[in-house]
Hints:
The structure is a single chain. The protein is an alpha+beta fold. The protein is built from six helices and 13 strands. Strands 1-2-3-5-6-8-7 form a seven-stranded mixed sheet. It has a four-stranded mixed sheet with strand order 11-10-12-13, with helices on one face. A two-stranded antiparallel sheet has the order 4-9. Strand 12 and strand 13 (231-234) form a beta hairpin. The longest helix is centred in the first third of the chain and has 15 residues, at 28-42. It holds the Pfam family Acetyltransf_1. Residues 6-158 form the N-acetyltransferase domain. InterPro entries: Acyl_CoA_acyltransferase, GNAT_dom, YoaP-like_dom.
Amino acid sequence: MCESFITISGNLLEQEHLCCAMTDKKHQSGVTAKKKWLADRIAEGHIFRKLDVNGKVFIEYAPLETAWVPIQGKSYLYIYCLWVSGSFKGKGYGKALLESCIQDAKKKGKSGICVLSSKKKKPFLADKRFFLKFGFTVADAINEEYELLALSFSGEMPSFSAAAKTMEIAEKELTIYYSVQCPCVVDCIKQVRTYCGKNNIPLHLFAVDTLEKAKNLPCVFNNWAVFYNGCFKTHHLLNETYLKKYALAHVKEK
């Protein structure tokens, strides 16, 4: 196993690719937005660590106090994403990246590490089974579906905010909360806006562009959340195909 990892700092942002959207041209505007967002976050202790290869092998985490999620806790690290894909799977890279995060947390005197997951495996969320192997346990849950996993060093546990547990909003139209923390979001927003415009579907887009907004969201959130008729529907990124085939197919009929 190659063990050459890079932690991206401010001076490496422009020259290093962001693994999750490195080859797809349609996401390049999203990559630009993500790099701008990341440049501000690095100063807050945000970490983007990747294998020194052209592949999707990376971990991204931040101090919970400055992580853009509606989760509260004292002196924790929050993992946004741990991704190993393709030919890099099964070679111990996920284990190495997570262990580096654990070591970093202990070195910094943190109370622990937490990550958003689910009772049953869902796309775009941490694999619960993998994290349980490292001693993570369920610290909190919403609707017996979404779970906050935590590895505590101090006995203290993080939790979802009270607002996040509502999973409801007043607006009845299709509503999407999003941040540019994920490079894929910019293109997804473009596709959803175009599709809804062509099909006369009322759409409300809520840009989560400050830490305060992120901490007070009315739902689980990693970088995307969809509501319809006032109820939370999915954390899954929507593009035109997904919107037509799966998500809220009845919207047009209402």
